[in-house]
């Protein structure tokens, strides 16, 4: 019987380091809040460079999509760690290095108004090769701005 997966502090740091080292994530200003096998949460503060509608000061749809994709990718990576924990480290890292988005659907529900946006990702399915993740984006008042579903290659 397989042992339940525990996201140790070392693995949490590895996932956090992986996403913090991506230059585009740094440009957006994405910050990690929670990494667990059940949920990933991250946020970004609004800044002038992220505005799409300059008349109303609304967050750009591409930023919304990117934040949800990054959050979903982190959730998929954690699922991949869990599914490949039995493999030798070199083989596991080889599989994890191929993580990528296969499909991404975003539904924009409301304009991105706010000073801080929080993305949450929950696993719907984490298989050996593909993970399906559900994401939500809320503003700082708790208003649901967008939802998404991402499919990720993870092995």
Model description:
Pfam families: 4HBT (PF03061). With 155 residues, this protein is α+β, with helices and mostly antiparallel strands. The protein has helices at residues 9-20, 23-28, 61-83, 89-96; strands spanning 31-35, 40-45, 51-53, 58-59, 100-108, 116-126, 130-139, 144-153. The strands form 2 sheets. It has a 6-stranded antiparallel sheet with strand order 1-2-6-7-8-5, with helices on one face. A two-stranded antiparallel sheet has the order 3-4. It is elongated, with a radius of gyration of 16 Å. The mean pLDDT is 90.
Please tell me what the overall shape is: elongated
Largest beta-sheet details: 6 strands, antiparallel
- Helix and strand run: HHEEEEHHEEEE
**CATH structural architecture:** Roll
How many helical elements? 4
CATH topology: the name is Thiol Ester Dehydrase, Chain A
As laid out across the biggest beta sheet, the strand order is: 1-2-6-7-8-5
CATH superfamily: Hotdog Thioesterase
Based on CA atoms alone, the radius of gyration comes out at: 16 Å
Strand content: 35-45%
Distance between the termini: 22 Å
Low-confidence stretches: none
Mean residue pLDDT: 90
Estimate the helix proportion, in percent.
25-40%
Q: Give me the secondary-structure category.
A: alpha+beta
Please indicate the count of domains. Answer: 1
CATH class: Alpha Beta
Tell me the total number of β-strands: 8
Enzyme class: hydrolase
GO molecular function: fatty acyl-CoA hydrolase activity
EC number: 3.1.2.20
Family: Belongs to the YigI thioesterase family.
């Amino acid at each position: 019987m397989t042992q339940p997966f525990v996201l140790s502090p070392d693995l949490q740091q590895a996932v956090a380091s992986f996403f913090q080292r991506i230059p585009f994530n740094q440009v957006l200003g994405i910050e990690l809040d929670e990494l667990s096998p059940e949920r990933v949460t991250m946020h970004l503060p609004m800044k002038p460079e992220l505005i799409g509608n300059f008349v109303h000061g609304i967050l750009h749809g591409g930023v919304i999509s990117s934040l949800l994709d990054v959050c979903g990718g982190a959730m998929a990576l954690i699922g991949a760690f869990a599914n490949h924990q039995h493999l030798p480290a070199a083989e596991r890292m080889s599989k994890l290095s191929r993580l990528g988005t296969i499909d991404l659907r975003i539904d924009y529900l409301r304009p991105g108004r706010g000073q801080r946006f929080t993305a949450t990702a929950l696993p719907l399915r984490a298989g050996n090769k593909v993970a399906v993740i559900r994401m939500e984006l809320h503003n700082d008042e708790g208003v649901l701005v967008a939802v998404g579903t991402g499919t990720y290659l993870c092995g």
